[in-house]
Design goal:
Largest sheet: 8 strands, mixed
Number of strands: 23
Strand content: 25-35%
CATH architecture of the largest domain: 3-Layer(aba) Sandwich
CATH topology of the largest domain: Rossmann fold
Radius of gyration: 23 Å
CATH superfamily of the largest domain: Alpha/Beta hydrolase fold, catalytic domain
Number of helices: 9
Oligomer: single chain
Strand order of the largest sheet: 9-10-12-11-14-15-20-21
CATH class of the largest domain: Alpha Beta
Number of domains: 2
Length: 448
């Protein structure tokens, strides 16, 4: 049988299209020769212009159809049946200018994914998928603070963006905090808002005129953000939640234990203690706190950086391996006196907590620290039983569903450019972030 060509009756069926970025999409190809071996390739670009692509090979069924949600991939970016595998298995050969190898999404604009079906190396069908982050008619408002960047004392800088979904308010609001990368999680806040929440993507370092790196962040800054939210008539200030990741999860628990208006917390890869910033004050030689409250450092656990750097030198330099920062934090946790002093008083949190951890987290021991959080809550008779979603084979980088998860390590300018390992596997991370995201949305709906 001669191979069909583009326009010969071979067609993609992609539904829904357009779709929301966290929405399951069915990718089918119809009109194929029965039992033909077909490759499906998809490509997209991230917000830094890097090309991401994946390819999977399928055997058409007796009706000449392929359904990626039902049929197994026989090779390529993933194996077996994975309904969204074509999306999460996309890879990029290039790192960003700052060394970040993860998929970069820094705004709330739609993405486009282009699909091709290939038979014997020839393209026989094409289609595109539009992926949206925002519901139409979502309103946005920027949180601005005075900027001193030009030295004149004039002007303002944006440090937060509020997404207000359509429909009658007032709406519950979720503050979305990024991790050690700093800046905004605009994309995450945008897609979360489609589920009926007002969301505030709030930066706390890494954006001018905020600190350039994570140190001496006053909790009063977040108190002011809460006050700003309460002034919006579309916001129900009695229903405030926080979703934080990594250092943002550490911060979320600190804020929940400090401010009673916070009623629900989702903490991805959380910490049970407040940690020190990296390095020492050049003028005093003292350790630097990450957080302050009322002009004083929030008690913190120091990080034994010198010994860790010596132990890491050989695998990093000689064997070219990425750093596993988990070992650094585990060493810090052995300082029991400091850990007890720096433990976050999670028993003061006025609402329920959803904790998410990966058992193969290489950035820090999130699963172990999550168990410490749970033990402290039980020991202190918390009125709210925490929920713990644990994914044994997942790593540190859990976002929202259907993003590429193939990057296994990266660099971060806020970590002195070190190449560090995330842990986990693409398959485990894809499954974990899908399950965690759906549970987080249900948790927030139930508690706000």
């Amino acid at each position: 049988m001669s191979a069909p060509s583009a326009g010969s009756g071979v067609d993609f069926e992609i539904a829904p299209n357009p779709a929301f970025v966290d929405e399951d999409v069915r990718v089918c190809v119809r009109g194929l020769p029965a039992s033909a071996l077909i490759s499906i390739q998809d490509t997209t670009e991230d917000d830094q212009g890097r090309r991401w692509s994946s390819l999977a090979r399928f055997r058409a069924d007796s009706a000449g159809e392929i359904d990626a949600s039902l049929h197994e991939s026989l090779g390529g970016g993933y194996l077996g049946v994975a309904p969204m595998g074509l999306l999460w298995s996309m890879e990029s050969a290039a790192a960003s200018a700052d060394g970040n190898s993860s998929f970069a999404k820094n705004n709330s604009l739609p993405d486009r994914v282009d699909f091709e079906a290939l038979l014997d190396g020839r393209v026989i069908a094409r289609a595109s998928l539009a992926r949206n982050f925002l519901v139409p008619e979502t309103a946005t408002r920027d949180l601005k603070i005075p900027s001193e960047a030009d030295g004149s004392g004039a002007g303002e800088a944006t440090v937060g963006r509020l997404f207000i979904p359509p429909g009658r308010g007032p709406h519950p609001v979720v503050i979305v905090l990024s991790g050690s990368g700093g800046g905004f999680d605009l994309d995450k806040a945008a897609v979360l808002s489609r589920h009926g929440f007002a969301t505030l993507a709030l930066a706390y370092f890494g954006v001018a005129p905020l600190p350039t790196w994570l140190h001496r962040i006053p909790l009063e800054y977040f108190e002011a953000a809460l006050t700003w939210l309460s002034a919006h008539p579309e916001i129900d200030s009695a229903r405030v939640g926080i979703l934080g990741v990594s250092r943002g999860a550490e911060l979320a628990l600190l804020l929940g234990s400090t401010f009673p208006q916070i009623r629900a917390i989702v903490a991805y890869a959380p910490s049970s203690v407040a940690w020190a910033a990296s390095g020492r004050d050049k003028s005093t030689g003292e350790l630097i706190p990450c957080w302050t409250w009322r002009g004083k450092p929030v008690p913190f656990a120091p990080l034994p950086l010198r010994g860790f750097m010596w132990r890491s030198a050989f695998p990093v330099v000689a064997l070219k391996r990425p750093v596993m920062f988990r070992d650094l934090f585990r060493s810090g946790l052995r300082n029991r006196e400091a850990v007890e002093r720096a433990a976050i008083p999670v028993e003061n949190i006025r609402g329920p907590i959803l904790l998410v951890s990966g058992g193969d987290d290489h950035l820090w021991p999130a699963a172990e620290m999550t168990e410490a959080i749970i033990a402290r809550l039980k020991r202190n008779g918390s009125a709210h039983a925490p929920e713990h979603l644990h994914f044994a084979h997942a790593g540190h980088m859990l976002r929202y569903p259907h993003l590429p998860v193939t990057a296994r390590d990266s660099r971060n300018k806020h970590l002195r450019g070190a190449r560090f390992s995330f842990g986990g596997t693409p398959v485990a991370d894809a499954e974990a972030q899908t399950q965690a995201w759906h549970r987080a949305i249900a948790f927030l709906h139930a508690n706000l």
